Amino acid sequence: MANNEESRGLKSLFDWFANRRKSGTTNSERQEREIADGLWHKCPKCGVLTYTKDLKANQMVCTECGHHNRVDSDERIKQLIDTNTWQPIDDNLHPTDPLGFRDRKAYSDRIREYQEKVGLIDAVKTGLGQINSLPIALGVMDFRFMGGSMGSVVGEKLTRLIEQATQRRYPVVIVCTSGGARMQEGMLSLMQMAKISAALQRHQDARLLYIPVLTNPTTGGVTASFAMLGDLILAEPKATIGFAGRRVIEQTLREKLPEDFQTAEDLLKHGFVDEIVSRTQLKNTLAQLISLHQPMPTTQNMMVWESMSLSSTGVD
Question: pLDDT (tens digit, 9 = 90+) per residue, 13-27?
Fold first, then answer.
């Protein structure tokens, strides 16, 4: 009898400790979660906790493993453009619902929800600015808005950006991140591929520079058009770049694809990308490339420069 009471007492004591341990773990997890929100960032690649302020200072690149966390268009502009030089253009272009498209909800309602949630009118920001004091026309796509999909507004804004750059004789840089053409606009979204490509051809005919920067992910119709039409094509490390999805290709070919398939490193190896550049080096790299591709000086300026060079060396 005494042994039964003793065993019941020990069991209840173990239960009490187990409950304490369980509640303590829950409380510590809750406390850790509360501390981490907005203050700390856990790297999805290596799991290291980094102070958010330090991570932002390193342009959202993990200091431990180099993982490039996704950044929005506003942050990207801050990283690339010199302070107080950004001039947004065509901010008043709003998407419409020309097909009256509806899936689980009306396309017009979906647009309104994303505009309220993300704070953007559509999936791209365009403008003029300076990179290390060099003028530039910059377009930045934002994956938060319907997966950075390319609809009529995205196509129109990028086309106008390129045309204005051609007129001003500015180089064009487009930071690409997209799931492809926006299906809710049907053929109208596919037409944007040709429209942007035509504007880039006129830009090239004027012997002006265009550099796309491919970030994670860049897929679909964007990859099949302006993302791959650059004079120099840059990509961020480990970015997913391709047209059709990996699963679709595997089902079509009925064979297993390599692990690094459709990564920036794989595309560099096969010549589709010219260079992989870390985000922390992107601004300086772009500035160097733009400075190297500045228009040649006129003949008169060359003669003045040569006479100055000869006189400085003492040559008669």
Answer: 556 556 666 655 455
Longest Cα–Cα distance of the chain, Å, equals 120
* pTM reported for the whole predicted model: 0.82
Same domain assignment for residues 15 and 138: no
CA angle, corner 109, sides to 108 and 112, nearest 5?
A: 90
- In whole angstroms, what is the distance from residue 220 CA to residue 197 CA? 15
CA distances from 125 to 147, 216, 285 (A): 14, 17, 21
Beta strand 172-178 with 134-141: parallel, antiparallel or unpaired?
parallel
- Please give the average per-residue pLDDT across 260-267, as a whole number: 94
- The answer to whether residue 205 sits within a structural domain is yes
State the first-to-last Cα distance of the chain, in angstroms, to the nearest integer.
120
Q: Can you give the length of the chain in residues?
A: 316
Please give the structure tokens belonging to residue 268: 């560099």
How many C-beta atoms surround the C-beta of residue 259 within 10 A?
A: 7
The torsion angles phi and psi of 302, rounded to 5 degrees, stand at -65, -40
Q: How far is CA 9 from CA 13, 16, 17, 162, 167, in A?
A: 6, 10, 12, 80, 87
Q: Please give the tally of structural domains in the chain.
A: 2
Together in a domain, 97 and 226: yes
